[in-house]
Amino acid sequence: MSDISFQQEVAKRRTFAIISHPDAGKTTITEKLILLGQLIQVAGTVKGKKNDRAATSDWMSLEKERGISVTSSVMQFPYKGRIVNLLDTPGHEDFSEDTYRTLTAVDSALMIIDGAKGVEDRTIKLMNVCRLRDTPILGFVNKMDRDIRDPIELLDEVESVLGIAAAPINWPIGMGRDFKGVYNMYTDTIHVFQPGKGSVVAEDIRIDGLESDAARTLLDDEYENFLEEIELVRGASHFFDREAYLAGKQTPVFFGTALSNFGVREMLDGFVEWSPEPLDRPTDTREVSAKEDTFSGFVFKIQANMDPKHRDRIAFMRICSGTYTKGMKMRHVRLGKDVKIVDAVSFLAGDRELVEEAVSGDIIGLHNHGTIQIGDTFSSGENFKFTGIPHFAPELFRRIRLKDPMKAKQLQKGLQQLSEEGSTQVFMPQRNSDLIVGAVGNLQFEVVSYRLKDEYKVEAIYEPINVFTARWVDCDDAKKFEEFKRKCAENLAIDGGGHLTYLAPTRVNLALTEERHPEVRFRSTREH
Ligand code: GDP
């Protein structure tokens, strides 16, 4: 690829993820986006319950049973001269860790709000993660075909609860049974709603000008009220400012209904026009520009056995600079080794496809035989490490025991791999030979025992254990640290990555210990 065409290719990329509360409509919107963009590549599955592609994975049958989405996936589609990479995030809150890390691999996010419900818990949590990196966020208020809450109140809620300025781009005309369409306040155009066109890309029926006769006819009795409402909205809301959006300070908001595939196209048009190109990324030595031609990337997710025919694991890598070409050599920085990659994959309709070429902003899958961990950097030989890929302290803990004590080795190996993948976290207390599994949500425990049985042939049982939370500990003062380690030996453990961790039995114990050892840092997140 020539320099100029490389730069042009990078400039086309738009890499994003959806943040929303379960049931707000993420899956439905994803389907419509793919419909609009003529899907070219699918990695993983959109969602088990609705998509046969889930059949490509055996352990995902758990996911199907529960009707939830356990795994992230990556979809790539072209739209209006851009190449859009959509990174799916697990919808179930038990898998929030995976979701958080996926958010480190994108350049912007789409926030979906259920118009009937407003801003919900999980959106708040995810928004807080986006805020750590000032990720630009575009908003979509969904389910306009239902009776939703007052749109002005919804925007107020976005501003007060999420702490981000809201700039409505279009405004709904009616709702529920009386939903007539949306009015774009910037182009002075009405897009007319046509029900029953959910599964197709319907023609865009427009009325130019709110002052036009056609607009009066459409709005009928509601015409005067709507004019007043628009006056009010214009006065009370923010004017769209792209710089503020790119800085993560303002969210442009669209209204629509994903189920009827209405308003999604307008939102996608705004998205490809305004959202950022692949951003520059910090490393421990310098900032890497997406337009540098030397290759680099980092792994944000590892997923097992997406295809039962291939029992290895796939490491998902976000390319941060340069071009991946088939057969190229790259430096696995943590191991200090150069590796030749001939078989990076993308996925076409559920089948594995080898990628010939991919650039900054794209996601590729590397075959992982146990040497790749979440957070690993790959480069063209330079020794740097991308920063900011978080690991969160688990909130739930169980002791894990074997039914058959002869299988201790397999159990260790299984837990080690599952923890490298980020599916769970494992802690080995210093005072005994227990194995403690930590999770962010309860369902994670089920997934771990299912996969231990399915993939490692180990039957394990959980027992309750008195741990409230975990904190990664470190200290600049070696002497003080030794003293801390001696005094707190009872509560110290080593995690799957070899890091010293304090396991606190209660909130009070944690507070007291922190107070007694002010020189020691107790961290609730750690970087990979
Ligand atoms: P997710 O959990 O966020 O992925 O949400 P889904 O896309 O699975 O949607 C949850 C439910 O809301 C499903 O029953 C959808 O059919 C429904 N839904 C999604 N979008 C709309 C919409 O625009 N209008 C209505 N009435 N229902 C919707």
Structure, explained:
With 528 residues, the chain is of the alpha+beta class. Helix content is 28%, strand content 30%. α11 crosses α12. It is globular and about 80 Å long. The structure holds guanosine-5'-diphosphate. Its main location: cytoplasm. Belongs to the TRAFAC class translation factor GTPase superfamily. Classic translation factor GTPase family. PrfC subfamily. Keywords: Cytoplasm, GTP-binding, Nucleotide-binding, Protein biosynthesis. This is Peptide chain release factor 3.
Give the averaged pLDDT, no decimals. Answer: 87
Shape: globular
Distance between the termini: 33 Å
Number of helices: 14
CATH superfamily of the largest domain: P-loop containing nucleotide triphosphate hydrolases
Cα-atom radius of gyration: 25 Å
**CATH top-level class of the largest domain:** Alpha Beta
Subcellular location: Cytoplasm
GO cellular component, one term: cytosol
Domain Tr-type G: 11-279
InterPro entries: EF-G-like_DII, EFG_III/V, G_TR_CS, P-loop_NTPase, PrfC, RF3_C, RF3_dom_3_sf, RF3_GTP-bd
